[in-house]
């Protein structure tokens, strides 16, 4: 049978990063096809291309033999392709029925017949086996039920291709079971289902075939699951040679600088404890949603802390807001540079001096000469590529923005602990090495550095020690001598059977 | 030719250029415009808007909004008159009025920063509460002043220029300095650019917002006192709609409603454009009703210009 959905040599580049190169594979009608890969392997880029969210640089998508040229999500919608994202797109204050028929209500002269609406939607929901009263408000539903409604929406729009992005990540096992039944029913109806997941057991249970992406390339494509083993897929996911862009160098590691004890917050209910030592780079690895950034925000005082303590060089700091942390020498380069890091519309120099200027602004009056000298100094020493210090920071590339944020903290007087969340996300290879080098020299200068990353090779490449997070807690820590891709990945995986499968191989 | 013209108009100083051209044209074509008397009258007429615009600029630059300024101006004017009458001392009356204005601004700031209520809603509420208080305390009527020397606040002159214009000029200088040369000004713009990033970079965002609104209240009180002196009484219905004129002037002057961008010179030019348009229409005997239409059109054009400018910036 010819493939109904075909990806044909899809490539996509971002400035300095090749997100996808030459991805080709197909899925036949009535099949559930898994799409696997580590964080950053290119899964979400591929899905965004499928949903019309972004455009591929090269290659095309064919559906039922017809080449599709999606300029926007509307085009994908018109071609009856639906992507169910992790963040659900329902209106919480409307009922299930209203959400499902939003935009095309049954109405006479503009007056909605709610009875007809409920009956119509109720019937359709029963057809696909979703047991939810169409008159309930979406806000009253569980996450699992909302997911179901989102899929029902795709079905009711008569989608031919449905892509599910990590659908079970926030579902209980009972809810997952219901979801699987729904997916199986959709398969019987001849839909093409693309199932993106980290969870091996789900893929093995549900999928008819699987494609593995790695570093933006097609690592493996299995049209059927026959003869495919878990070990094989794991190898395909991680089997990458570590290149030497890391340039790790050993250094003297001293006493404990940062000590975090049993810290909890509303987004991190399990108490977490760890410490980082003078001169040490402590890596934090975990899959998306493991709670890494949440933990770091709590330590920094960016979010409200329920319990626990933070001490620097034996002195409790207990920050309740970032200002206190900064004064105690604890600083954070946040995960989301755009929303939490850079101050848009302001110059490079302003972004660098925002915190440190308090040291040289008597009575709050700026010392513009000093600010200029400070900015020019960092632009030179960190090789920040910008036409001038007056340039608006939004016009800089990701790597240079990251350097500006690092410069913001290097300009502070007495930094002892530097937390960097995703130091190289969206940054090209050249700039990556420069940032790693900078981190090493800072560690050599006596800082304790905590690096959070969802890229396993990066964490392994630059850390002296790795803490692995899983499900909101620290699952394991490894010393550099014991680094092993499989054991670390196994510790990060939420489902035990996959973890065991990996353990067996190693 | 068109390219360079475009560059001038959409450049940093585009508004100033347009203002200068418009000023020259009006001076040459409208009789009695460029006379000392008319110029002073023009400046007198924009004193209230100009003074309040100083702090409204900070409010908008930090992505906030203040609708209560008109009410605070009216209320503090009333308080100044009533407190002066009650205590028999004008300086004491003025102090009390300034205290009241500052307090209302402080309350706005605390509600917005600490209780996290949207600034638009908060100030919409205080706008009505304060206007109500002004009406209640005066029983809806104008309150006359006992001591006629109160009028001297608006009538007195220094070097031939009326005191209120001096006050406006001094406030322009002070707040221009604060915006461009102090940590307070930079932090205001940083909050407007990205509040969360500013907080994570150690800016005390709550404290900043409380201060901005408190200053706004204080400055409104100054404007209210000068207005009461000029209209020789405390009037509970004074300065209605002031908030919109002030915000218009700021937007005309290139202050971005999305925050992060503001310049004192721009705001001054914005205030003057509003004043000149009104003044010219008066000199040409255009009916007051048409003036609303013209003011609206000017605002739309200014925003359009701003939009073109940021788009051309984005392309660069």
What does this structure look like?
The complex is a heterodimer of chains A (about 500) and B (about 325). By secondary structure, chain A is α/β, with parallel strands linked by helices. Chain A has helices at about 45-50, 75-80, 95-100, 115-125, 145-155, 175-190, 200-205, 230-240, 290-300, 320-330, 335-340, 350-355, 370-380, 400-410, 430-445, 455-460, 485-490, 495-505; strands at about 5-15, 15-25, 30-35, 60-65, 65-70, 80-85, 105-110, 110, 160-165, 190-195, 210-215, 215-220, 255-265, 270-275, 280-285, 305-310, 315, 330-335, 415-420, 450-455, 465-470, 475-480. In chain A, the strands form five sheets. Chain A has a six-stranded mixed beta sheet, sandwiched between helices. A six-stranded mixed beta sheet of chain A has the order 18-19-20-15-21-22, sandwiched between helices. In chain A, strands 2-1-4-5 form a four-stranded antiparallel beta sheet, with helices on one face. Chain A is globular. Chain B is mainly α and about 325 residues long. Chain B is about 75% helix and about 5% strand. Chain B has helices spanning about 1-10, 15-30, 35-45, 45-60, 70-85, 90-115, 120-140, 150-155, 165-180, 185-195, 195-200, 205-230, 240-250, 265-285, 290-315; strands at about 145, 155-160, 160, 235. Chain B has a two-stranded antiparallel ribbon. In chain B, strands 2-3 form a two-stranded antiparallel sheet. In chain B, helix 4 (about 45-60) runs parallel beside helix 9 and helix 13 (about 240-250) crosses helix 14. The longest helix of chain B has 28 residues, at about 290-315. The radius of gyration of chain B is 20 Å and the shape is globular. The two termini of chain B are about 20 Å apart. At the A-B interface, helix 10, helix 11 and helix 12 of A face helix 10 and helix 11 of B.
């Amino acid at each position: 049978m010819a493939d109904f959905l075909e990806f044909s040599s899809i490539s996509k580049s971002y400035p300095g990063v090749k997100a996808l190169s030459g991805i080709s594979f197909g899925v036949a009608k009535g099949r559930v096809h898994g799409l696997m890969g580590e964080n950053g392997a290119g899964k979400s880029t591929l899905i965004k291309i499928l949903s019309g969210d972004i455009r591929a640089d090269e290659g095309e998508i064919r559906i039922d033999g017809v080449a599709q040229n999606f300029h926007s999500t509307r085009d994908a919608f018109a071609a009856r392709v639906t992507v169910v994202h992790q963040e659900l797109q329902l209106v919480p204050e409307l009922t299930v029925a209203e959400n499902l028929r939003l935009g095309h209500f049954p109405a006479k002269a503009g007056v909605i017949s709610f009875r007809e609406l409920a009956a119509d939607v109720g019937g359709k929901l029963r057809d696909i086996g979703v047991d939810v009263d169409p008159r309930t408000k979406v806000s009253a539903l569980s996450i699992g039920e909302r997911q179901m409604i989102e899929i029902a929406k795709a079905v009711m729009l008569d989608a031919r291709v449905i892509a599910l992005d990590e659908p079970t990540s926030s579902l209980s096992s009972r809810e997952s079971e219901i979801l699987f039944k729904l997916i199986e029913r959709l398969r019987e109806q001849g839909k093409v289902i693309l199932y993106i997941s980290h969870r091996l057991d789900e893929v093995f249970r549900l999928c008819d075939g699987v494609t593995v992406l790695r570093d933006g390339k097609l690592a493996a494509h299995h049209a059927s699951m026959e003869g495919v083993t878990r070990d094989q897929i794991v190898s395909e996911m991680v089997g990458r040679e570590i290149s030497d862009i890391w340039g790790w160098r050993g250094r003297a590691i001293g006493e404990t600088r940062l000590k975090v004890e049993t810290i909890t917050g509303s987004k991190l209910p399990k108490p977490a404890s760890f410490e980082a030592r003078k001169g040490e780079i402590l890596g934090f690895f975990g899959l998306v949603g493991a709670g890494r950034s949440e933990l770091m925000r709590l330590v920094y005082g960016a979010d409200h802390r329920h319990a626990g303590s933070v001490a620097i060089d034996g002195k409790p700091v207990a920050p309740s807001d970032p200002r206190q942390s900064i004064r105690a020498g604890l600083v954070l380069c946040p995960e989301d540079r755009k929303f939490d890091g850079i101050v848009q519309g302001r110059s490079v120099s302003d972004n660098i001096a925002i915190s440190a200027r308090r040291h040289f602004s008597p009575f709050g009056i700026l010392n513009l000469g000093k600010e200029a000298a400070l900015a020019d100094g960092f632009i030179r020493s960190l090789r920040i590529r910008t036409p001038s210090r007056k340039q608006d920071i939004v016009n800089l590339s990701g790597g240079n923005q990251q350097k500006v944020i690092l410069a913001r903290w290097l300009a502070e007087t007495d930094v002892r602990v530097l937390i960097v969340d995703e130091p190289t996300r969206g940054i090209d290879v050249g700039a990556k090495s420069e940032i790693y080098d900078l981190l090493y020299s800072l560690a050599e200068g006596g800082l304790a550095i905590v690096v959070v990353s969802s890229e396993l090779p990066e964490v392994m490449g630059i850390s002296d020690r790795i803490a692995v997070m899983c499900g909101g807690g620290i699952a394991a820590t490894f010393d550099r001598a014991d680094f092993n891709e499989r054991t670390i990945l196994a510790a990060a995986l939420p489902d035990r059977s996959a973890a065991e499968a990996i353990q067996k191989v190693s | 030719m068109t390219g360079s013209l475009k560059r001038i108009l959409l450049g940093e100083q585009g508004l100033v250029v347009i203002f200068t051209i418009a000023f020259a044209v009006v001076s040459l074509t409208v009789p009695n415009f460029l006379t000392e008397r008319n110029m002073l009258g023009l400046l007198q007429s924009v004193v209230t808007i100009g003074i309040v615009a100083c702090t409204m600029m900070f409010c908008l630059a930090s992505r906030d909004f203040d609708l209560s300024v008109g009410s605070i101006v009216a209320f503090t004017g009333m308080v100044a008159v009533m407190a002066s009458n009650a205590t028999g001392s004008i300086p004491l009356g003025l102090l009390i009025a300034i205290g009241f204005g500052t307090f209302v601004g402080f309350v706005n700031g605390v509600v917005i920063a600490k209780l996290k209520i949207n600034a638009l809603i908060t100030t919409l509420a205080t706008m009505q509460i304060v206007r109500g208080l002004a009406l209640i305390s005066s029983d809806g009527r104008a309150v006359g002043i006992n001591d006629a020397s109160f009028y001297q606040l608006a009538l007195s002159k220094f070097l031939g220029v009326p005191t209120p214009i001096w006050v406006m000029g001094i406030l322009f200088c002070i707040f221009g300095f604060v915006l461009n040369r102090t940590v307070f000004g930079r932090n205001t713009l940083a909050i407007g650019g990205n509040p969360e990033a500013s907080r994570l970079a150690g800016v005390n965002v709550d404290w900043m917002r409380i201060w901005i609104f408190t200053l706004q209240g204080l400055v409104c009180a100054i404007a209210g006192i000068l207005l009461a002196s000029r209209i020789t009484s405390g009037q509970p219905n004074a300065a209605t709609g002031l908030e919109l004129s002030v915000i218009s002037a700021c937007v005309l002057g290139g202050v971005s409603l999305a925050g992060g961008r503001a310049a004192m010179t721009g705001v001054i030019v914005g205030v003057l454009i509003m004043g000149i348009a009104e003044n010219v229409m008066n000199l040409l005997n255009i009916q007051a009703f048409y003036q609303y239409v013209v003011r609206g059109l000017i605002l739309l054009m200014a925003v359009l210009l701003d939009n073109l400018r940021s788009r051309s910036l984005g392309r660069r």
